[in-house]
Write a structure and sequence with these properties.
323 residues; alpha/beta; Rossmann fold; 9-stranded mixed β-sheet; binds S-adenosylmethionine
Amino acid sequence: MAVPAPRWPEPAHAISEGPSPIPLPPRRVPVVRHGYVPLSPEDFNAGAALGLSTPPPNVLIQGDCLEVLSFIPANSIDLIFADPPYNLQLRTADLRRPNNSLVDGVDDQWDQFSGFEDYDRFTERWLAECRRVLSPSGSIWVIGTYHNIFRVGRLLQDAGYWILNSVAWVKTNPMPHFRGVRFTNAHETLIWAKKSEGARKITFNYRALKELNGGKQMRSDWYLSICGGAERLRDATGRKLHSTQKPEALLERVLLATSRPDDLVLDPFAGTGTTGAVAQRMGRRWIMVEREPDYCRLIQDRIARLSPPSPVPAPDETPSSPA
Ligand SMILES: C[S@@+](CC[C@H](N)C(=O)[O-])C[C@H]1O[C@@H](n2cnc3c(N)ncnc32)[C@H](O)[C@@H]1O
């Protein structure tokens, strides 16, 4: 059966020239500076409801992905990278190093669930929506730790996805384990899956990966450092602006492996926007969803600092638009 053509919202108003408050006032700026559009879920839905068929350029949507995903057309996304809440269930409010300094753990509000059942319901819902929007030849990556990845793996399979690989991101510089009662937690797991067992023609750039790996076939253990140095987003006092910012090298490998130039990449849990920043640098289009306004502002700043990609015509610059 023929897959219906995706129907896209057309940007309802402003095209960003860089950092700006979200949501933006309803106005039209006929110039694209950095090639992305920040939208509220309402704008995004309004475009979808109008049935506009113009594919959007890169889009940042501030909202709950459970709501936003429902506005995205079925079968329209080439690649999904999801870094969902971990449900860490941190019981120790004040974890300290031997020198008594405070450990910067993941105790954020966005990581709080009332228990496994609550977390599983949430996971089932976003996995189902991601599967609906994923193209039959597309694939999804989900990253997590021992706290959540086993539950996510089971729910992925229950939802109908077909797991292709799991990859261990081995952290070359993990956070030390201070209390000496467990192993140092030095890796995260990525699951790579396709939409269904029968899905065919999944993008896998075998040769490019082999080249990256000194001529040898790429393995499923990736040795990469955690996000640090100039890449890590911090405030003026040096405090991390997000507790779980992923390294760009990790996303570069994911995108190199499983997407092609111009593909549309979705990140439903954007955080600091690592996926979109790397996608944009690599010539992929992106949609990112992030619930927290502060993180959306970080993303806007980050994308604005990238060198502009080739210009995308704004709606009122297209030949068919009224003057
Ligand atoms: C693990 S972090 C992602 C970090 C990101 N990969 C990066 O490199 O910065 C998860 C993010 O998902 C966001 N989030 C949690 N629940 C959400 C939801 N229902 N919809 C949209 N974003 C959500 C959180 O605010 C948080 O920033």
